[in-house]
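Q&A log
Question type: sequence-to-structure
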Amino acid sequence: MEDKQIIDLFFCRSEQAITQLKEKYHGLCLSIARRILPDERDVEECFNDACLKVWNAIPPERPDSLAAYLSRITRNLALDRSSYHHAEKRSTALTDAFEELELCLASSFNVEHLMQEKDFRQFINSFLANQSKENRIYFVQRYWYGSSIAEIASAFHISEEKVKSSLFRTRNKLKTALEKEGVSL
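Response status: OK
Response body:
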């Protein structure tokens, strides 16, 4: 079933919408959550919570991309659950990736300021649009999906060193772009 039809089912408040959503996006959402959460029960619960959030949000929301909308919700729920479980331990699958980004991101106060002045998501999207396709893919795989360097290298049949250097250069470019926006580091 097409996304538009599934969204229409949500607007009709048909329970078939959830069935179709689960049928079409179960694998995608579980894949996203598994990269963040080690426990399969948490992964399944995260997906179910995401379906409930979509049920409660549509209507009035009408997302352009149901896959992206559900993926974002699933990822955010998984990150929240991971933070809850590992508040003291810092042992999530994304910890290493986020620590890599720490050096180019500003303090939370300055990031909040940037988000108020400009849409931070739009800034990141614009930044990534100006990168090469391969650098953009590596960046998103690493920092959005939480893929390891080895997984990215294997998926694209390249060396881990190439992935590391690409990510290093992209992070430095991001740092420079943030500085140009007036975000102090």
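Response note: Residues 95-180 form a domain with the Arc Repressor Mutant, subunit A fold (CATH 1.10.10.10).
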